[in-house]
Amino acid sequence: MIDGIKVVAFDADDTLWENEAYFQEFEANFCKMVGCYVTSEQASAELLRTEMRNLHLYGYGAKGMMLCMIETVCKVAKEESGLMAVQEILKLGHELLQIPVEILPGVETVLSALTKKYQLVLATKGDLLDQERKIRKSGIQHYFDRIEVMSDKTLTDYQKMIDGIGCKPQEFLMIGNSIKSDIEPVLAIGGHAVHIPHHITWQYETQIDDSVSHDFFRLEKIEEVLNYL
Amino acid sequence: MIDGIKVVAFDADDTLWENEAYFQEFEANFCKMVGCYVTSEQASAELLRTEMRNLHLYGYGAKGMMLCMIETVCKVAKEESGLMAVQEILKLGHELLQIPVEILPGVETVLSALTKKYQLVLATKGDLLDQERKIRKSGIQHYFDRIEVMSDKTLTDYQKMIDGIGCKPQEFLMIGNSIKSDIEPVLAIGGHAVHIPHHITWQYETQIDDSVSHDFFRLEKIEEVLNYL
């Protein structure tokens, strides 16, 4: 039992619904598209470099990924067939932006058990329009008292969010799949955190700080949260 | 004097700072780039069609515009030189995402005069990361009690915002440059609105509903707001 909690916040992508799998499928398709110029490993590495270089400009989300793929194509492709790959990226990107939202197992059980007992917050990072579309399609927005779409999930972003909610850090519990975005910054401001690893994690999110405290719960299934709340 | 106001909200792009001019310059460059295939008018019309078709996917902002330009290039350009135009679009798009924020004349006078007397809200539409970057660079964020980045500015979006603030529509005054986004939806929910036309308006924002009420102030200069508050 974690005492004193008044607010419970959930990460959305890969905690409430499937997400990274679609991005990785998009990336696999991209690697195939440029397969005549570079190997899959080279394409993937070049794409990640491009994404990191542009993160401060594009932020997270599908549009930034599409633009980074296009930039990578310009770099690796030979002039004459590059434009076909660009068209294909736009086509697949549009599909990515319209994939149905697939709620993860156990999520509704947890939300319906907690919704009357705690103030529930959906705290997600990414493109505003992307995230709003997923939230609307998810059909689970009625469980939440607040929905927070953040452009990033740093310590400062969480501090601002908690100030906006009007609760103390020790009254705040974050549930998420990313150590870097959902766990480490929340612990750093004095909050509680539960880590529920997802089967697929974006490479960027695995670049974690070794000095991160290990003072958090790691659960295999989201339903196990109910044993602690 | 408008009585009973507790909250004053400002649109940001083209009300507080320069914006549309940079987008139109980007578009002019784009038209030049594809000038060997189509006329400027055709390029511009094709781009607007592409933007409207993708608005529900991309939302507003520079990344969506870049993707729409790339899609338009794929449509109009001949294969062999299309990729060079794509590279140029990415380059110009990056420049667009990093343009300094130029506060419009009179804005600081108005904000410093109102900041103690009213709850001030910055209510802007667009890409979350784009908007946050501009807000940070603007150096005027300390005047505002709330900053609201919305993916759109419909009647429902304003209703949600006002509910979040906890004020009545008749206590809410919106100041902005777009009839479609800043004036019409605010009047529709029973709020007050002041229109300050900007010298440049995006074509999309000029497609207004003819039935819109004309019960709002139109001022030439933002400082004139101080005569009414």
TrEMBL record, chains A, B:
Top-level taxon of the source organism: Bacteria
Keyword annotations: Hydrolase
Keyword Nucleotide-binding tagged: no
Lyase is among the record's keywords: no
Molecular function as annotated in GO: hydrolase activity
Pfam families on file: Hydrolase (PF00702)
SUPFAM superfamilies: HAD-like
Matches recorded under Gene3D superfamilies: HAD superfamily/HAD-like, Putative phosphatase, domain 2
Name this polypeptide is given: Hydrolase
